[in-house]
Amino acid sequence: MDGHETADTAMDTFRNNGTAPPGSRTFGVEEELLLVDPGRGDAVPMAGALLDLYVRPFESSAGPVLTAEFQQEMIEVVTPPHSTLAGLQADIVAGRDIARQAAEDVGVRVAALGTSPLPSDPHPVRLRRFAAMVEEYGLTAREQLTCGTHIHVSVDSDEEGVAVLDRIRNWLPVLVALSANSPFWHGEDTGYASYRSQVWSRWPSAGPLDILGTPDAYHQLVHDMVSTGVAMDEGMIYFDARLSRHYPTVEVRIADVCMMPENTVLLAGIVRGLVETAAREWKAGTDPAPVPTALLRLAAWKASRWGLRGELLDPVTSRPGPALGVVNSLLHHIRTALEDMGDLQRVEELTDQLLHTGTGAVRQLEVLHRTGDLEDVVDDAANCTVGSEIQGAQRGTPGD
After folding, report:
1. What is the pTM of this model?
2. Residue 382: is its pLDDT beyond 50?
């Protein structure tokens, strides 16, 4: 959802970074986590109790913070912006650990799952806006218990931001495949690696953008969408990637929340590489790839269906190809930017690790196959949320 009603100061230092020179764009991450019963594994409406006890850092730049989201069965972990991947990585791990401790304080656990494997009956947070959304959108809002990853990357201006949106749009479906972590819905195997993507697409304002060319065209589109009354306000403009309403950033919103923190680190590194590459292309006068929006919807669907275990649509040709080849094409596309930012080696290592171990969706299905119990799937995911090898390896990593 758009949880900024409750998190307006969480990344305020983006406002103070000024122009980001090539290779040092700041970036930050918002991760939505499920709150689950430690015994039964089902999602529980404990966000209010958790946040009542949670002590927020005095300054937004002090570290990760927790905020409310649309449903009481979830919270959001928000990092401050960073200029290095190592610094962001440390705060991703720290933020999940803060969430774990806060959840334990009210007798629940946090689990990085794109959807609840077990049946759930969500309870919206008691805000007037959310009540209006439930009234307006019916079952779409009432069932909307999904957890995603939102990645903010700084841009110098709206002009640069729209140029970036125009040039990253065809690569975004690959992020769905890399992050896929939601194979279950209401206790059933959906056959999708990222069923969250299917649930999220029910919102009338969700999905890919056309090539717009100018900030005026972007803002006019947003204005026209709100003017229809179908989108209640600008917070409901749920493009796969958009200009942030609060910060001088491009916000990429298409990915599932990742079960393992290192996969969130990987996504963040890739997204910053995409933004930097796109900005360089724009400055060099390179036109966006003219992929029709209808084909981007098909590419996102295919990534949602198969994740990394099947074919994806090539971001340039829109023809099917092996997932490994498409991922390699993505890394090749952003390689120079990754090198210049010092991220190439880490991104390649994390990509190899993900391709070897599989996505969260693969792990969930393997646990169910081994145990036959969705409660075990949730328990394993909660352990992975804060118990990955990266936690011990990176504890104490200095910020930037």
Report:
1. 0.91
2. yes
